Amino acid sequence: MGTGVLVLVGALAIWAGPAAAVVGTACRYEVAVSAAFVLEGTVRCDAGVTELLTMNSRADRHTKLAFDGGAGRYRVDLAAMTASARRLGEAFRIGNSVIVNGGTWLPYPDTIDGRPVALEVTVTVAPGMSMASAMADAEGRIRIDADTLFAAGYTVFGRLRRHSLPFATVDGEPGQVLVVFLDGTFTLGDAALLTWVRQSVTATVNFWGGLSEPLVLLAVLPRSGRYGVLFGRVMRGGGLSVALMVGERVDARALAEDWVLVHEFVHVGHPHIKGDPWFAEGLATYLEPIIRARMGRLGPAQVWAGFRRRLPQGATVMAATGLAGGGFVGTYWGGALWMLLADVGLRQATAGRAGLEHCLRAVRQDGGAARRVISVGEMIAACDRALGVDVMTRLYARHAGSVHPVALGRLWQDLGVRPVDAMTVLDDGAPLAWLRRSIVDGSMPVVAEPTENGDPHVRP
Hints:
Blueprint: E1 5-9, E2 12-16, E3 26-33, E4 38-45, E5 49-53, H1 57-61, E6 63-68, E7 71-77, H2 78-83, E8 91-93, E9 97-101, H3 102-105, E10 108-111, E11 118-125, E12 130-133, E13 142-145, E14 154-158, E15 161-168, E16 174-181, H4 190-208, E17 215-223, E18 229-235, E19 241-247, H5 252-257, H6 260-269, E20 272-274, H7 277-294, H8 300-320, H9 327-349, H10 356-365, E21 373-375, H11 376-387, H12 391-399, H13 408-415, E22 417-420, E23 423-426, H14 433-441
Parallel strand pairs: 3-11, 16-17, 17-19, 20-21
Antiparallel strand pairs: 1-2, 3-4, 4-7, 5-10, 6-7, 8-9, 9-14, 11-13, 12-14, 15-16, 18-19, 22-23
């Protein structure tokens, strides 16, 4: 991977990552964005492209297209598109800035035979405006495959404040998280927000052993009159990006107690896991408090108190429907319980030499970049293969699509997680207290012998 540098294209400031050559059929876009957030584009395509298509209903209502003979023009009124938006979706406006995904402002080139089409996009913006995108290449252009537009990453236009946080990638190459504040202010000021972002992102990147891509865009959206950290979302296609909505009146306590940013950056670290959403969301739900404990924002008792309060919802789903049919609760808390069972089982099966985090990092090192698409089955097989066990494979067969109860009370007892009045007390004399401690602090105490199957707590 090459080293990224900051380049300027007219009034456009973007980060340039590694270049990707345009091969095969291509369309070349020249795009200008006005101060009124009206986007005017011209397109010239190689032979075989029959038409340009809008990607969603919102874009369709606010886009005008004219395309014939491999060339055409289009116009997107981003201001009108965002005027009726009440939540972050395809496009959203914050003051004199807008955030859109690639499928909203880049029409999709269609071909008769369905052949892949590469997009090469050059953008200029009006004076006083700038743009930030995770899709730019080393020449200052956006080069992506058309198919990635369906889940393309965020692009922001307008009055922006940017900060670069340098990190090494998982391959040891230079990378960065480009933090972009959209137009708006925070009562605490940008410096306090940036310190909080740096701490949260650093802890999560360190957990994964490096940044997953040379560039990750983090777009921070100040919400007028609101309090706290409100919402986050990761987009992976054509550039890895995160949108984070934060109330302008957020205070130091809300930042210290926030879980959203760490949750989203857990997703930044793993491949795109298709199917079975409980796996990815359960993983982020489980790892988030552990990472926050390792950075000092939570104590061990707080981590386990949260698990003891929430994970019984996941156990109910496992006993009633299995994870695949568990809905919201199954996706988050059922998935998180499955991750705890896997972590306990892996540490027992390896006599304390490795746990869930170690197999995940091994998959990452073996080509598991965040934009790679992998099935749950492939992810689980790779994880077990990395540690030389079959713990996750058997847990998946037991809980994914079938009903199987979990002896959660016995697990708490063996881990030494005990309720005392309204509190959670940790018992260091419990048989698996060493394992409980290793999950939270990352230590690797080695016990005498591995267990036979590594999952004694999944049966009632």
